[in-house]
Write a structure and sequence with these properties.
It is built from 1 helix and 8 strands, in the order αββββββββ. By secondary structure, it is α+β, with helices and mostly antiparallel strands. The chain has one domain: 3-Layer(bab) Sandwich (minor pseudopilin epsh fold), CATH 3.55.40. The protein has a 4-stranded antiparallel beta sheet, covered by helices on one side.
Length: 154
């Protein structure tokens, strides 16, 4: 008789069950990692859009706005455009599911000198709707410079 090589059906089923169990245990942390990545990317993208708007306002000696693509809903993306001419400088797509943006004004407008037209510090919070990961707070100071930090905006 010749000896057969390979796995038995029982060995294969046990191996697949162990792999499925490990995948089920890793799934919640994987979801948190994805949401954390979306928050980090969204905060960084918004900060770079604000820096671009500030730079363009100073360079062109005109007002430049960062505003949501859909009025009042920043999680669907935003654009950077000149206020007078409407010329668009940048566009950002939606942030993805499980991310919410709160505290953001209808638009963020930079004046010719690189400062915000709104009085005071403007704060925008990016958070996980399920509260699994720490939120991000983007604060724009009186000079018009944005700063991104961990935690809720206070």
């Amino acid at each position: 008789m010749s000896r057969q090589r390979g796995f038995t059906l029982i060995e294969l089923v046990v191996t697949l069950c162990i792999a499925a169990l490990l995948a089920a245990l890793a799934m919640p942390s994987m979801r948190s990692m994805v949401v954390n990545s979306r928050l980090r990317a969204g905060g960084t993208d918004l900060m770079s859009a604000l820096l671009l708007a500030r730079s363009e306002a100073i360079k062109r000696n005109a007002q430049v706005a960062v505003q949501p693509v859909v009025a009042g809903d920043w999680k669907n993306g935003w654009i950077v455009a000149a206020v007078g001419s409407g010329e668009q400088y940048d566009h950002k797509n939606a942030l993805g599911v499980d991310v919410e943006v709160t505290g953001a004004p209808a638009s963020i407008v930079y004046d010719r000198n690189g400062r915000l037209t709104a009085v005071g510090v403007t704060k925008v919070q990016l958070a996980d709707v399920q509260h699994r990961v720490e939120s991000r707070c983007l604060a724009i100071d009186l000079s018009g410079m944005p700063k991104l930090a961990y935690g809720a905006c206070t």
